[in-house]
Write a structure and sequence with these properties.
five-stranded antiparallel sheet; about 110 residues; four-stranded antiparallel sheet; mainly beta
Length: about 110
Amino acid sequence: MYDGIKYDTGNNFDIVTSEYQAPVTGHYLVASHLFCDNHEAHQRILVNGIEVAHDHMFDGYEPSVVTEPTIILRLNSGDRLAIQKQGAFAGNVIGVHNGRLYTWLSVALINIE
């Protein structure tokens, strides 16, 4: 879903699988922004393939919507974090348009256990 990496000092994000691998056990702040060119958007946060959070937005008046889940997660070293759009809408995910970043994922380590 992502077409580039802006900042990843630990090289923990796999651009091919769109997954972040936790380097150490601890608490992480996870924030994402999904922009769709439709009236409805669903976004799931997965850890090792299991949904841990979900965000849904519907607006019958706007031609595009955004979901922005933010969550603090405890991840074990090696856990794989992924953001997944859900197929309940027909719109396209907008990544970068006219030089502006519309869809992104941010993961920050808060503390190490």
